[in-house]
Specification:
With about 260 residues, this protein is of the alpha/beta class. Helices cover about 45% and strands about 20% of the residues.
Length: about 260
């Protein structure tokens, strides 16, 4: 079986890693739309268009299931993709919410994400539906930090503190990282928030969510494609996957 995964950049590699660990027999194709990252500052219409172009490429590679690793695309484009594609499609929002609801003790849950993800209210609606009190915060500088490889040191520490100060005082006991880039900053976020706050990323939850649809057969291969490459791309691939990997550059939109 071949599974396609796409994200606006490299952050979705955290999801790819979790999927590969759970389904080592399966083949994967990953597309990072690094030429247009971040999606979080785009309009919903643009996010939908970009997402359709990404899945067009993945379908051309013969994938049989699609995971939308981008939280912004999951928030705005998932319904359109479900209606458009002839294969199962999964986002990362709902699995993250399910995990947070199982984790929280006081029903106070924080959500950090891009401006678009927070504005969409996707996490907020699902959490409040189950009786949780939700505290949201857009953190637009987190993605550029990760894309530049600035995941430790004084600069990211100050940015984390700047964005999360209010959430730290809100009384939440669970915090959802509503962007696949953010797990790279998880150690800094956990350190700032303290041991009383459980930090959730949706990679593992998403891997569990798709299990009923996965055929455990393939050659255990994976292919990486990006729409642009930065000087730090190779470093970030190795950091996120735990191993160096070759990749190819592609242009979107493409003709299938």
């Amino acid at each position: 079986m071949k599974i396609g995964v796409f994200d606006s950049g490299v952050g979705g590699l955290t999801v790819l890693k979790a999927l590969r660990e759970r389904y080592p027999e399966v083949d994967f194709v990953y597309l990072g739309d690094t030429a247009r990252v971040p999606y979080g500052n785009r309009s919903p219409q643009t996010v939908i268009r970009y997402s359709l172009e990404c899945v067009e490429f993945l379908m051309g590679e013969g994938v049989e299931l699609v995971v939308v690793a981008c939280n912004t695309a999951s928030s705005y484009a998932l319904e359109v993709l479900e209606e458009t594609l002839p294969v199962p499609v999964f986002g990362v929002v709902e699995p993250g919410v399910k995990c947070a609801l199982k984790t929280t003790k006081n029903k106070k849950v924080g959500v950090v994400g891009t401006r678009a993800t927070v504005s969409s209210g996707a996490y907020k609606r699902l959490l409040e539906k189950e009786g949780a009190e939700v505290f949201q915060k857009a953190c637009p500088l987190f993605v550029p930090l990760v894309e530049e490889g600035l995941i430790e040191g004084e600069i990211p520490k100050r940015v984390v503190a700047y964005y999360l100060e209010d959430l730290k005082e809100s009384g939440i006991d669970t915090l959802i990282l509503g962007c696949t880039h953010y797990p790279l900053l998880k150690p800094l976020i956990e350190d700032f928030m303290g041991p009383q706050v459980k930090v959730i990323d949706s990679a593992q939850s998403t891997a569990l969510e798709i299990e009923a649809h996965v055929l455990r057969e393939g050659s255990a291969s994976f292919e990486l494609y990006f729409t642009d490459e930065s000087p730090s791309l190779g470093f970030l691939i190795e950091l996120l996957l735990g191993e160096p990997a070759e990749y190819k550059r592609v242009s979107l939109p493409c003709k299938v």
